[in-house]
Amino acid sequence: MRPYCLLLASGIAFSVAAGFTPQATDGPYHVIKVTKVGGEGGFDYVYADSSGRALYVPRGGQTARVDVFNLDTLASAGTISPTKGVHGAAVDPKSHHGFSSSAPVAMWDTKTMTLIKTIDVQGRPDGILGDPQMGRIYILSHSSPNVTAIDANDGSIVGTVDVGGAPEQSVVDGKGHLFVDLENKNGVAVVDTKTLKVTNTYDLGGKGGGNAGLAIDVRNHVLFVACREPAVMVMIDANTGKYLADLPIGNGCDGASFNPRTMEAISSQGDGTLTIIKENNPTTFVVEQTLKTMPGAKTMTLDTKTGKIYLIAAEYGAPAEAPANGGRPRRGPMVAGSFSIVEVGK
Fold this sequence. Notes:
This protein is an all-beta fold.
């Protein structure tokens, strides 16, 4: 994941100080509300703890931290610090311990929101995933070691894995397999969670690349791989890696999830769209809806209890300088107090 959602795909417009108004589109989902919660610093992942009813939003910069919000009201519920270079957060529901993908990793009590300890890890922590069946937290890094497994009960390091590429998002199937999206290899690594060894790597066969989001239908063994180049969702068999289908999504994806209750895969994009893909059966998929959200809202999280989707974004002013030599458009300064949580539902 690119640091703190600071860069968007070329040609994407930034919202400005005048504010953002979501646009309605045909389909079951709509933007329920956009809540400006403010706060300084960059941002990357957002994470919903459905059982604990908390929303975790890591913020970067000089005051790096994890801001916590009530998942039902979006009222402020606390702050976790200290953290450094923080990108994401995850919670183990059994131990009630929270963790940040940062250097070092912060471990906290989710009931009291107090820091328990910090954990030194190697690499450059970026993505993060909780594995409730194994009682572990996986920290992802674009440099070696690519995956660090942490015991969620005591914060000890169980082991590390090099997956042969740069991880973005990851998922588990609850049956001993960790799937890791490889952004620079156009594939998905399969890791045995007991041995912490790579057992296979699924190639997308030219159907998609620049993988940035990953979701799984555990029951039907389907992986949904959200790609940037081209902007498609590639569906493959989780058991064999066999190609099943691909469908178009928006530009600049950086997150995906699957809702088993509705049989929908969801992909969030930096161009301000949310793509909903309906799984009619394990081999048939359709784009159910493309919803306008907010420019820059390229990471998302699913509240599995309510089915609501949460995204994060901010408004930006005009750039001070034009891009040099036809390069990527520059981004202006973040509008003070504009950092927002976008809530989407049916």
